[in-house]
Design brief:
This protein has 119 residues and is α+β, with helices and mostly antiparallel strands. It contains two helices and four strands, in the order ββαββα.
Length: 119
């Protein structure tokens, strides 16, 4: 048995779907005997997590599982190993950096609070 990293892709459809296509790409850890077993387990995860619900505006939202688009064996778990990379193009680079810095600051504060709660 070994670990695999699987990318599951879902399509998000709000209301009648009259909006820009939206997709959620999720990276999931899967523990399996081999690649085929990992692929099948990842597909079962995706199927199980399809969902239908009403959003805050009482419009239907449908999360439709598309498929498993990537599967990578994790031969070794080494501290600092890159697991995922995504290059983004943004209209406003300065604003993107500002948002990232705010998120990092919030995360840092949250980690500090949790650390002090444990003491």
């Amino acid at each position: 048995m070994k670990w695999y990293l699987a990318k599951l892709v879902f399509r998000i459809i709000c209301g009648e779907g009259n909006h820009a296509p939206q997709f959620d790409e999720q990276l999931r850890l899967v523990f399996a005997e081999n690649e085929m077993h990992a692929f099948q387990k990842a597909r079962l995860l995706g199927d199980a997590e399809e969902d239908n619900f009403l959003n805050n505006d009482k419009k239907p939202v449908h999360w439709k599982f598309i498929d498993v688009s990537e599967l990578h064996p994790l031969n070794e778990l080494i501290d600092g190993t890159e697991i995922y990379s995504c290059i983004k193009e943004e209209d406003n680079g300065d604003e993107y950096i500002k948002i990232i810095n705010k998120r990092a600051s919030y995360l840092h504060e949250s980690c500090m609070e949790k650390t002090f709660e444990m003491i």
